[in-house]
Amino acid sequence: MNPIQRGVFALCMMAAGAAFAVNPVSLTIDAAKPGAVINKDVYGQFAEHLGTGIYEGLWVGPKSKIPNTKGWRNDVVGALKDIHVPLVRWPGGCFADEYHWRDGIGPREKRPVKVNTNWGGVDESNAVGTHEFFDLVDLLGADAYVNGNLGTGSAQEMSEWIEYMTSDSKSTLANLRRKNGRDKPFKVAYFAVGNESWGCGGNMSPQYYSDLYKQTETFLRAPKQYRPKIIASGGNGDDVTWSDVLSKELKKQTYGITFHYYTLPTGNWDTKGASTGFQEKEWISTLSNTLRMDTFIQNNSAAMDKHDPEKKLGLLVDEWGTWYDVEKGTNPGFLFQQNTLRDAVVAALNFNIFHAHADRVRMTNIAQMVNVLQAMIITDKDKMLLTPTYYAFQMYVPFQGATSLPVALKDNPDYSVDSLKVPGVSASAARGTDGKLYLALVNTNPTRETEVAVNVAGQGIKSATGKLLTASAMDTHNTFQAPNAIKPVPFNATAGADGKLTMRLPAKAVVVVAVE
After folding, report:
1. Does the pLDDT at position 489 exceed 60?
2. pLDDT at 458
3. With respect to CATH, is domain 40-399 assigned 3.20.20.80?
4. Cα–Cα separations (whole angstroms), residue 199 to 100, 193, 194, 204
5. DSSP secondary structure string, 156-186?
6. What is the pLDDT of residues 458-471, one digit of tens each?
């Protein structure tokens, strides 16, 4: 155990210690009023042909000296299995609207080499295509979310891709799939028609897109047992127009409408802010900006409620996460950034928001899985390390498929710096599929610990046992020289003689516990 971990562990052991001079935050869980189920796909991942997000980070090829299965790195796949990845979105992103699926089938040595014009202008070998992607999701035990090409593609191209993947007939395309090594149809859980059609996917209006969507969806035919749920490309940020128009026009033909939002410390795309070496004002600005997700979801849900009051449509946040200035010395088009404790806190805050809107938010996909933006894993040739965001996902695994429970906070002080302020404590609770009651807490204040008095309405509490993630510095991160600088440690709290449970949260901490 390194010095940082010993210090964190000591804080954990103080969890049930003496009370503060100020009143603790009061938290009540109403276990008798279960809410919506938290769809496992809320913890979905995203792998785009971008930088080393796929090539090197995940795919090394079957002839590589790096241990692999069917070309996919064993170390990375093993780590991803440990966080129970439920879903992977591929091949983009902006890349999807320039991707032609026929380029990625057949013998790899005969596939055309293209230019990835979106991300760095590098060669795209097409070594990873449809069959390789399904090898990956099979290795992970995950579902497949395939993003179709509307921008430079056509309804015919997407229709033929669906047939290639899902047909159990003796058609030419189905037999071509068999020739390429796959007898039975692939299981495509979701298929999206385009990506960011308001921007890199074609600079369309929502009205124009909805017409193209309806045309395309008409021809996305598949056997009933293999038919994917079809997804529409929606809006971003504080613009609810796409959710409004699409929920009105497409509610009979779609599973859900996408929404994208990235957290920037500065809110300025030209100068986003650094991933490390930041001051407290950048800590709070990042948290303040990420908490806007709650308002955006509320506003988009309200727009959808006008046309879909029964909430049959999902709001699918299939791109989210932090976006900083790229690390110096790296290709600007590869979007590589360091990943710190701040990113884990951002992830946990968003998880708690998604849980609160589980009736509408049925899928999210953090950007991205490996080596790109808010990644789970960073690799360098044969080396691999896990990021603080990875550990946040690991700690929240019990919430996959859990039933959300109402949480009420009282006496929750604001954490503030200058004119910015955010709630000091964020919380979420749910009944897991194992029957246990799980509680997630975030202390947003990077300089002050806090106490939370936990009450479950109508029942007593004996203890809380789980994991804590924190560190001494706001920008603590793992490196190849110090790969375990930050990782979760045990957390325990026991009710006092009065039957009350008070949990002491260290500064800048994420805690997930089972409450008994």
Report:
1. yes
2. 79
3. yes
4. 19, 14, 11, 7
5. HHHHHHHHHHH--S--HHHHHHHHTT--SPP
6. 788 999 999 999 99
Question: Residue 22: pLDDT band by 50, 70, 90 thresholds?
Answer: low
Q: Where in the chain are the domains?
A: 3-35+405-515, 40-399
E strand map for 173-308: 190-193, 229-232, 256-263
Judge whether 449 and 443 are in contact, CB under 8 Å.
yes
Q: Which CATH fold topology does 3-35+405-515 show?
A: Immunoglobulin-like (2.60.40)
The one-letter amino acid code at 343 reads D
Report DSSP letters for 26-46, one per residue.
EEEE-TTS---B--GGGGBEE
**Catalytic position from the list 196, 217, 249, 282:** 196
| Alpha carbons 224 and 466: distance in angstroms, whole number | 42
Which two three-digit tokens encode residue 263?
């957290």
Contact 355, 430 (CB under 8 A): yes
Looking at residue 30, its amino acid is: D
Q: Which residue has the tokens 């805050």?
A: 349
Q: Which residue has tokens 């001079």?
A: 21
Q: Reply yes or no on whether 132 is catalytic.
A: no
The first and second tokens of residue 274, run together, are: 């650094």
- Residue 319 catalytic? yes
Beta bridge partners of 236: 260
Give the percent of the chain with pLDDT over 70. 96
- The confidence score (pLDDT) of residue 334 equals 97
Assess whether pLDDT exceeds 70 at residue 9: no
Q: What is the pLDDT of residues 143-197, one digit of tens each?
A: 999 999 999 999 999 999 999 999 999 999 999 999 999 999 999 999 999 999 9
Instruction: Please indicate, yes or no, whether the overall pTM of this predicted structure exceeds 0.85.
Output: yes
- Burial level of 60, CB count in 10 A (0-12/13-18/19+)? buried
Other CB atoms within 10 A of residue 134 CB: 18
